[in-house]
Amino acid sequence: MIQMWNDQSAPSLDDFAHLAEAAFAALPAVFRQAAGEVVIRVDDFADEDTLADLEIEDPFELTGLYSGVHIGERDAMGPAAEPSRIFLYRRPILDEWCERGDVGLAEIITHVLIHEIGHHLGLDDDQIHAIEDEDD
């Protein structure tokens, strides 16, 4: 029997938040501790200012973003930094999930979350990709 999917809807922002919380909870304890008090936020898309700052024209190109001062640049004696935040963008993640079709939604959310935690820890994209390549 073919499932018609007529009674299904896309996961909501709250659903994504729960998936992100579960993904974070499933990370090794040492990784969660290193992430510290980072705030995880789920939005449909990055806002216009963020996209403009990153010179991104298509909002579907940005699945996640780290905002804050990474751990290596913090000054313990200086003024309190803005809270470190990780943004997960629901619509671009859903789009990637549909396009790929070879991994589960939770796996993509976990991947984006880990990538952004890497930025929180001070790693750049090249370093994060090198680590990911070692795991493959």
UniProtKB/TrEMBL annotation:
It comes from the Bacteria. InterPro entries: Zincin_1, Zincin_1_sf. It holds the Pfam family Zincin_1. Coiled coil: none annotated. This is Metallopeptidase family protein. It comes from Brevundimonas pondensis.
